[in-house]
Design a protein that fits this description.
The protein has three helices and 16 strands. By secondary structure, the protein is mostly beta strands. Strands 2, 3, 4, 5, 6, 7 and 8 form a seven-stranded mixed sheet that branches. Strands 1-11-12-13-16 form a five-stranded antiparallel sheet. A four-stranded mixed sheet has the order 10-9-15-14, with no helix packed on it. A hairpin with a 5-residue loop joins strand 9 and strand 10.
Amino acid sequence: MIHKEKFGHEYLEMPRDQFMMLSKHVLNKPVIDAHGTKLGVISDVLITQTLCDALPACKHSFPTVSGMIVNKRFISWRSVVSFADYLLLKERGFSLYPEPIPTDKIMLSKQILDEQMLDENGKHIGCVDDLALAYDKENTVLKIIGICSGISVRMGFNKLVDIFPWPCIKHIRFEKPTAIILRSDAKKYKPMLKKSIKLKRVSAS
């Protein structure tokens, strides 16, 4: 059995309105440089956990966001001033962000979003419909809190969200058939985040 004390109870007890949803609050947000120029939009988010460290996830507790993909370029989180309605960078232009896209890091949109979720016996639980993120206590780093299932926010429906805390992932299977393997019985995970999130309908733009 997994106890919340092992991987940071402060995130499990955090008010749900402090969470950011990957699809709604992060992806496709504008990226602005120090001179106010729009460089593009966020197409993916990379985390500190590497592909070879995908087993077990509990070892890493809640992974930290290491950077974003913008116009096929990697922007390190160290270069970020703030992130709310848009991502504000410290420097001007892409020329000051020469870092190549890391090939060993997990990409949330490309490799986690929409993947099937299985229990340890191979039973289908659902799909990763979104991911929940939140800032740490110092409000300086962005953490991945968990994977969400049963959410239709991308289609604008009002539904309840089940969040499975990231450390409840036993294994991320990147070889085909790809899947997110959860620990033990999935029913044990749901109470760990107290209540599911109830989302308001998202108006179509």
